[in-house]
Amino acid sequence: MILFEQFNSEIVVNLIYILAAMLFIFGLKMLGSPETARRGNLVSASGMFLAVVVTLLDQSIIDFSFILIGVCIGSLIGFFAATRVKMTAMPEMVALFNGFGGIASLLVGSSEYLVGFDPNSALLIAIYLTVLIGGVTFSGSLIAWAKLSEAISGKPFLYKGQQIVNALLLGFILLSGLEMIFFQGLFTENQFQILGLICLLAFTLGILFVIPIGGADMPVVIALLNSFSGLAACAAGFVILNNVLIVSGALVGASGLILTNIMCKAMNRSLANVLFSGFGAVKDTATGETADQGEVRPVNTADAYLILEAASSVLIVPGYGMAVAQAQHSVRELGELLEANGAEVKYAIHPVAGRMPGHMNVLLAEANVSYDVLVEPGDVNPIMETVDVCMVIGANDVVNPDAKENEDSPIYGMPIIETDRAKTVFVLKRSMASGFAGIQNPLFFKSNTRMLFGDAKESVSNLVAEFKG
Amino acid sequence: METQLTLLFFVLVLSIFLGFELISKVPSTLHTPLMSGANAISGITLVGALLASGSGFVSQPLTVLLGTAAVTFATINVVGGYLVTNRMLSMFKKKEAE
Question: What is the reaction catalyzed (chain B) (predicted)?
């Protein structure tokens, strides 16, 4: 009878796990459209709630006090982090959270390893992968966080013999994996030593993997680490033989990979190039040439106002410089005034405009820009000739015509927003300094380009004042 | 054991395909909330952490300590991830028709 009841409750628990997995899938599907996204997030959260509650009913849990401590501390930290974080700091926080997911999976794998079970190589492989992926995700995310929050230099860190060090490390990691799975006592005496060694190697790998990558490439790294945090949870699912971990982990792993791929395409670089080349190498060859490209044509606020006032379509191209200058709100105000003046206003957003995929959209949404006027380069490039005025605010490399015209340019082939084909282009810029990639931008010297020098926020506010005055 | 593993592998492969299908339809406007939302989902490892943390301190002190640390980290991930995603999505508004 007892056996029967246990059998029954196990089926119920597993059915509820399947239900939780379905809620995650529906939640992710609803995240595909701005109208349903918020509800989708709630659906996904209720799936998580269900999975947690049903787990708490498990008979093997005999003591709730430690669980309570962990959940309380975690909830408090999570709550404050989520409600306090500034939208500009979102990439750092997502990086940090990825790392927490990774370390949690590592700890789950470790506790299963040390609990003492019948040795079985499939389980040992799963534990090895959980600890390895979780550890790499954790230390890699911490480095990504430090680079994004500028706690350490965002410059790519390259050194001689990097490849050799990496190859040696990978060799060691493989060896220690064999040691764990077959446990021959090759270079460790007990389970604690081998586990500690693998953790150490995984942390080292995570650090060495992210440290050579430059700050400008961090969006790719966060997307990849996002994928890793999912894969770590997935591997942990094989350790505790739980299908909901495997399904959700795989969904997150796939999601991170797709975003990684999108970011790489937006920069016209392969993943291998982002991970292993260090953008510094490109930088050096680029800054050498400063060919005379002619004169730039500055414009003052009053003249810019007259041109904008006569425009019937305006395209705003924001870059991270706009967010640094905190100009989003002034830009939104200008956009509204232009619309009131009868112009059609759109915002063209390049995938690498922010510090993580979709970051610029969030920053504009925070400034109350309606999401239906945010468009992608592929939507506006074909109709660029019909745009009266293009306002480039704090963007540089993503509007550089060299990406299409100059085969020698390091960014040749990168998809850009082709602002140079608009009737008039305003470039709001502090000075003539070059962008992230450190390359000259011929857009500034084109005959239809006018430079509006000065702080982006100040320039836009002045334009707003002209409209109101 | 072997059949169970095979089944789990089957689930894994199907989930990966499903993930690719689902995510490739998400517009770039929503990529940041997607990422933080997915991040919250990866906190599902909390399920394993709860089992370890509740296994009884007297008999399994090490497991409980590791498990409790895992519960803490995974909860930060889950609670923080869902809350911040909700906060971001609440800012995405369409202009009301005038």
Answer: NAD(+) + NADPH + H(+)(in) = NADH + NADP(+) + H(+)(out)
Q: Quote ipTM for the complex.
A: 0.95
A42: exposed, middle or buried (Cβ count in 10 Å: 0-12, 13-18, 19+)? middle
Q: What are the pLDDT digits (tens) for A373-398?
A: 999 998 999 999 999 999 999 888 88
The beta strand positions in A420-464, using DSSP E, are 424-429, 449-453
**Among partner residues A62, A67, A229, which is closest to B42 by beta-carbon distance?**
A229
Residue labelled with tokens 């239900």: A19
d(CA A139, CA A290): 40
Q: How far is A88 from chain B (nearest CA, A)?
A: 12
For residue range A196-249, list pLDDT tens digits in order: 999 999 999 999 999 988 877 888 999 999 999 999 999 999 999 999 999 999
The minimum CA-CA distance between B14 and chain A, rounded to whole Å, is: 9
User: DSSP letter string over B35-86?
Assistant: HHHHHHHGGGGHHHHHHHHTS-TTT-HHHHHHHHHHHHHHHIIIIIHHHHHH
Token digits of residue A274: 């982002």
Nearest CA in chain A to B89: A38
- Return the half-sphere exposure (C-beta side, CA atoms, 13 A cut-off) of residue A287: 12
Q: Is the pLDDT of residue A342 over 80?
A: yes
Name the residue in chain A with its Cα closest to that of B55: A61
The verdict on whether A420 is a catalytic residue reads: no
